[in-house]
Recover the amino acids of this structure.
């Protein structure tokens, strides 16, 4: 078996961290619905529907 | 000659690293919610050592007057926290890795020994296996804490629909108290965990990124002697 690729794993971690930061930016600065960013508003509505069951 | 040994599966590493930002966001958004009613303290009877937290702390952290924002973030990321935790528990269960993680009868005595060693009060080295007694207790406890956070969180998020759950935890106020102190527990866990990794060295951090640990021949002999040799040693190639 070949030596495991350390570099690839660190690149993946870095990419994951970058994706997380982009995701956070998208989540918190996107268009708002009733004063909240759209994804957060949708999540609250989803939770609410779940609670009604 | 040193060799590589598989230490952490991809699923474990993904769940571990996913948990870092998710837990940080949950703690931060939890603090934004807590600002609205910061009722807890450290003290005994009428003597208060610390108020959790003074207004100055909230202001300094920029956490004041952001309750609604905190709640919306908290109730969004709770899904990531829950699903990530469930994947981890399911993986360790299905793969059988839980056997290495669950504490056994020897773990508690061993954990004391490990703590004494780490504090420099004992020269007895921790056993040369993947998880020593202290790690078994800590890593199992943090999973139970996760389950506790989810269930106490649910009890205070929807106390009407989950009234039975709130009652199970002693009522709404107790569930809230437990939820808060579990969060404080993660902060303590995080500090000790990072300190221990820093103390253990680069190899431990690298193993949680790459999945592989570099093992020298003496370590390998110790592991075999204790019957805990890793399954697949890989020869190191230059």
């Amino acid at each position: 078996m070949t030596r495991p690729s350390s570099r690839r794993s660190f690149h993946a971690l870095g990419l994951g961290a970058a994706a997380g930061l982009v995701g956070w930016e998208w989540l918190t600065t996107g268009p708002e619905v009733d004063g909240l960013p759209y994804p957060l508003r949708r999540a609250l509505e989803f939770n609410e529907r779940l609670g009604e069951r | 000659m040193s060799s590589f040994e598989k230490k952490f599966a991809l699923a474990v590493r993904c769940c571990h690293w996913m948990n870092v930002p998710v837990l940080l966001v949950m703690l931060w958004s939890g603090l934004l919610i807590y600002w609205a009613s910061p009722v807890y303290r450290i003290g005994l009877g009428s003597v208060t050592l610390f108020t959790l937290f003074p207004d100055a702390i909230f202001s300094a952290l920029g956490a004041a007057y952001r309750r609604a924002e905190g709640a919306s973030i908290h109730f969004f990321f709770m899904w990531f926290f829950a699903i990530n935790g469930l994947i981890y528990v399911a993986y360790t269960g299905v793969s059988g890795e839980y056997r290495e993680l669950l504490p056994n009868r020897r773990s508690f005595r061993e954990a004391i020994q490990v703590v004494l060693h780490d504090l420099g009060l004992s020269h007895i080295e921790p056993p040369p296996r993947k998880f020593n007694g202290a790690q078994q207790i800590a890593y199992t406890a943090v999973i139970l804490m996760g389950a506790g956070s989810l269930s106490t969180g649910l009890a205070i998020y929807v106390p009407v629909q989950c009234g039975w759950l709130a009652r199970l935890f002693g009522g709404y106020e107790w569930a809230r108290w437990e939820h808060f102190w579990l969060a404080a527990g993660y902060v303590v866990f995080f500090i000790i965990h990072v300190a221990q990794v820093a103390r253990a060295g680069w190899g431990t951090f690298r193993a949680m990124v790459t999945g592989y640990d570099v093992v020298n021949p003496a370590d390998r002999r110790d592991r075999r002697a204790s019957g805990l040799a890793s399954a697949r040693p890989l020869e190191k190639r230059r």
Q: What stands out?
A: Residues 67-95 of chain B form the longest helix (29 residues). Chain B is about 65% helix and 10% strand. Residues 226-238 of chain B have pLDDT under 50 and may be disordered.
